[in-house]
Amino acid sequence: MHIRLKLMKKAKQFKQELHPEHQLKFKSVSEGQDPEILVITCVDSRILPDTLMAIEPGEVFMHRNVGNIVPEAEAAAGTSEAAVIEFALKKFSSIKDIIICGHSNCGAMKGLLNPGSGKDLEFVPAWLEHAKPVTKKLEQHSCHSELDGMEKLNLAIQLNVLTQIEHLKTYPLVQQKMKEGVKIHGWLLDIATQAITVYDEEEKVFISSEAAEEKDLYAKANTILEETAAAYLQAELAKSEDNPQEVFSQLKAGVQPIWSQIEGCVRQNLWTELQVLYKNENDPEFEKLVERVSQMKLRNLAEILPEPRNREFQAYSSALTNSGLSFYSPLQQRVSRAGAETAGQLHMSAL
Predict the structure, then answer these.
(1) TM spans, by residue (predicted)?
(2) Residues 6+ apart with CB under 8 A from 282
(3) Is 42 annotated as a binding-site member?
(4) Residue 351 clears pLDDT 90, i.e. is over it
(5) Within the chain, which residue ranges are assigned CATH 3.40.1050.10?
(6) Is the pLDDT confidence value at 313 over 80?
(7) For the chain, how big is the Rg over CA atoms in Å?
(8) Average pLDDT for 17-32
(9) How far apart are CA 102 and CA 174, in angstroms?
(10) Which helix (H) or strand (E) holds 39?
């Protein structure tokens, strides 16, 4: 009775103290929703997604279950998880990201690692069968025999997030949406510190949310730079007689040769796409981003150049690539004399 009265009082207080801005927000979403993210996380009472992510009404479509588990598609008929995935992805084209979020000290993973502890439970053991691959992966892990109990639990929690991502990808609808650009992310919440780590697909490890944010930010900024540079270069090359190979030579080290011409457009496009992250256009952090972008390299020059020069350029860049050179990243190795000669021959044949 006490806790129920406490919750009722808090609900009344929330309504009374609701900021006018939030009142308008609730009113605006009262007739419909366009969430941008689907989050699947655990029912654990210590996880507060709304507080943790400062979620606004209508932004996130949320599903919670024991162990943030997603049954494989072939075993998902009749489950709420399958219904949530179908409803979210078919009804809301606005969803561009799916997050599976696990957490520290997970009771579901404890139960998975210690089956005997759930003898008094009727339904939970059957549910945890959907996470059974985690135990096999744990046993096959190179450090398994060296881990103590807590270390095994922490590793199982990580493996569970990755396993459920694999399960999520078995749904044909999810596969279709991924082709259309929907991204899937694995998160882990440390309950004690409220810190989030994010799985990095390239590094195959969980990294801090700060590191992941920076990586995603610069990847997005690089895409904006490339799109802006492409529009400029296509227009310029179409009306000039410049040799595309000379253009390549000028830009292979970076975008600086054309930065003064495209800086204004790049800045405007960056602000249009990323303004939610900054106070205003004079925000020092935004200025730092623009400066960083000015030092970036164009990764897809061959796709920028118009036909028929594009074919010449592709042959030229292919020759360099075959010799060990890359026009969009630092040199990873020294090119042998024989390789350089081969590249030169291919270069001449391309001309």
Answers:
(1) none
(2) none
(3) yes
(4) no
(5) 33-201
(6) no
(7) 26
(8) 76
(9) 20
(10) strand 37-42
With CA atoms as reference, report the closest residue to 296 among 242, 217, 243, 238.
217
Cα distances from 54 to residues 16, 50, 141, 183, in angstroms, run: 20, 5, 36, 21
Across 21-25, 46-50, 211-215, 317-321, least confident range: 317-321
Q: How many CB atoms lie within 10 A of CB 231?
A: 14
Q: Is 106 annotated as a binding residue?
A: yes
44 is in an annotated binding site: yes
Write out the H or E segment, with its range, that includes residue 159: helix 149-168
SS3 at position 8: helix
User: Does residue 57 have a cis bond before it (omega within 30 degrees)?
Assistant: no
Is 326 a residue whose pLDDT tops 60? no
Q: Report residue 96 as tokens.
A: 């561009």
Q: Residue 34, annotated ligand binder?
A: no
> Tokens for 64?
């919670």
Which superfamily is assigned to 33-201 in CATH? Carbonic anhydrase (3.40.1050.10)
308: tokens are 């028929």
Two tokens at 337?
Answer: 């004399």
Contact 44, 106 (CB under 8 A): yes
Is pLDDT at 197 greater than 80 in this prediction? yes
pLDDT reading at 336 higher than 50: no
